[in-house]
Amino acid sequence: MKDKMEDPAVIVVDEAGRFAVPLLSGHVGGANELAERIAAAIGALPVITTATDVRGIFAVDVFAVKNNLAVTDRRLAKEVSASLLEGKPVGFFSDFPFKDREKGCWTPKGCVDRECEINIRITTENGRFEKPCLLLVPRCIILGVGCRRGTDENTLEREIESALRDGNIHPGAVKALATIDVKADEACLLALTERRDWELKCYSAGALGAVEGTFEESEFVKKP
Fold it and tell me: Which fold has domain 1-49?
């Protein structure tokens, strides 16, 4: 057991197969859902004890996991759950449309589409807000990167962070770095992507040259 955001799901089932009880990581690890599946399969009773589930209230951490969103502030995530458990509304905003097949546009139970004392926003932006706002960030940004041979890892990281600030992009939104295939073995790219848990996507010069668009050309990158 290390951290509730990383611990695996642990479920115990009694010898007679009467109960399926989540012991660890009920939300983020999916133990609650797994216990319900096990119970359904063997005819047992799932014993769910987490407050939001018992009360039938929106669980922001479960929602984040199911939609591949990074929870950027665990303290605010707890405050969101506490507000919902107390019956206080939580503002819910999204830069990306969430839809229910039957209901169309969807707002989680207990949340409203207006600013409240505490709020949730699904976004890739790294903005500041007047009132507390939990950012849920989808990992969907791919950064195009080029560098000289032997570039220091920390130097590259600082340049990337500067570019993210200039673009008002939250670092948690980065999914991958993309570069030309001749840099596939570049030490700083390999080290940085491994440390930051980013993918490294490499493309041939032909593939990059075939991309349509208006770009500034560089004579430097054309050199052998």
Answer: Rossmann fold (3.40.50)
